[in-house]
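input
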Amino acid sequence: MAVNRLLYFGVLILSAVFYFASSLWFSWVLVVLLLAAPIVSLLVSLPAMLSCRFSASIPDTVEQGEKAAMHMTLHAWRVLPLPEVQARLNLRTRDVQKDTRYLSHLSRANGAMALSTETCGFIAPEFRRARVYDALGLFALPVKMPKLEPMVILPPPLQPDPMPRMDQFLQQQMKAKPGGGFSELHDNRPYRPGDLVKDIHWKLSLKTDELIVREAQEPLFRRMVLALRTPRGAAVRSVSLGNLRWLCQWLLEKGVNCKVVWMDGEGLQTAELRTEQDALRILRAVCLAAESSADL
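output
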């Protein structure tokens, strides 16, 4: 720490002036003690400095507006109190690439640092530089800092306004089963050349005076595609992703097959929506998309 070093050299210079300006016997003892103090401080603090380990953790996913914090802990082998530890932390988000925080007194920080969740998206903590100092704050050693995965902030579900009409996806339609065969569902139609004789419905044919064929049917599963334009800006992003979350939940409840399409830094991304875990994974991926993806 620069302040500690300036104070030390200031006191050392004053003691040297005092030694040369006076004839007192203890003036030279004071100079010797001040010269030896940094070495003693380093030797006493070195075990703790070398064994210093820093760990941190943040939630994987949180809801918008929910309280969240980064928990930090320092570990070191020591007899005396742990020396001073300082670090630089950048809290990168979808909207802000650089938000540097200067963390000091980490030796007493075995607690939590609050993180803002007012807007949906993500927070990516990045430790840039960390140093552990000796007892006097004159010498420093680097400390290895952890790499943390981004924390995703999900918006609350928001029903689209206006609500898109999706009735056709809820109505089960039928189609002819390719190759015929067994089926619990059938449809009657006039005979066409090439139809098998065993498929002719003789009772109905006798009543109508024309050949009627029982055609095996199977359900026609129509697929829906939710195409999301990667939103730009916190307000638009909250509405768009809230609509996406609401629609994913609605489609899962109705049992509709769906695919979600969006853009990120690597291009077009697609994912199947079959379970709630799929919906959570899709929302996380969209939240983590870079802000520049809105221009793709």
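quick obs: Helices lie at 2-21, 27-50, 167-170, 202-208, 234-254, 276-288.
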